[in-house]
Design goal:
The strands form 2 sheets. Strands 3-4-5-6 form a 4-stranded antiparallel β-sheet, with no helix packed on it. The chain has a two-stranded antiparallel ribbon with strand order 1-2. It has no helices and 6 strands. Helices cover 0% and strands 40% of the residues.
């Protein structure tokens, strides 16, 4: 399986394996045109992770494990 390479100003160039791609058939609310995303972990922003759109890597959503919120 071939890896996808994306470039973002925040994370630089990233190689993404097909098994790490999340597909939202209907897109996300307000971003319906973007269907494929990858989850990025960054030590600097922990405990937050980033859901980055493959079609437009400058679009990313911070996410956090709900167990970290008290």
């Amino acid at each position: 399986m071939e890896k996808t390479v994306i470039k973002s100003s925040q994370f630089g160039e990233l190689e993404v394996s097909p098994e790490n791609i999340f597909t939202f058939e209907e897109g996300l609310l307000g971003f319906e045109e973007y269907k494929k995303y990858v989850l990025i972990s960054d030590e600097i922003t922990e405990p937050f992770k980033w859901l980055i759109a493959l079609e437009e890597p400058e679009i990313g959503f911070p996410i956090v494990n709900p167990w970290h919120i008290d």
